[in-house]
């Protein structure tokens, strides 16, 4: 799964910031149950600027049409683990390139 994260880090990012992208799925057994992450990638952001490309590797069987449709959750964390940017609600996975727009959190 290919993705591109777009965000405006107008104040810059702290050294050691990382982008985390998860493929997740709601299993819907119990109302309010958080989604389950089944694949993740981490991209160090030191010395990068502009949009950030990422790739999440997963088994084809985990994307079977018989399973609930997966979503993408992307966030940027500082070295202290605090979330600086996020797509606030998961984005549905699309075929091809997935462009994810991130918004700053109150921590940023």
List keywords for this structure.
108 residues; mainly beta; 6-stranded antiparallel sheet; 3-stranded mixed sheet; 42% strand
DSSP summary: helix tally: 0
Give the percentage of residues in beta strands.
35-45%
Helix content: under 10%
What integer value in Å does the Rg equal? 14 Å
What letter string, H or E per element, gives the SSE order?
EEEEEEEEE
Our measurement of the CA-to-CA distance between the termini, rounded to an integer number of angstroms, reads 28 Å
**Number of strand segments:** 9
Low-confidence stretches: none
Name the overall outline: globular
Q: Strand count, sense and closure of the main sheet?
A: 6 strands, antiparallel
Structural class: mainly beta
Whole-number mean pLDDT: 90
């Amino acid at each position: 799964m290919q993705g591109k994260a777009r965000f405006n880090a107008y104040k810059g990012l702290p050294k050691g910031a990382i982008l985390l992208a998860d493929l997740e799925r709601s299993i819907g057994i119990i109302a309010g149950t958080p989604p389950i992450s089944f694949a993740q990638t981490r991209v160090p952001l030191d010395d990068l600027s502009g949009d950030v490309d990422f790739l999440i590797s997963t088994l084809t069987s985990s994307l079977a049409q018989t399973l609930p449709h997966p979503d993408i959750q992307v966030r940027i964390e500082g070295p202290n683990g605090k979330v600086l940017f996020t797509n606030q609600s998961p984005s549905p996975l699309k075929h091809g390139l997935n462009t994810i727009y991130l918004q700053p959190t109150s921590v940023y």
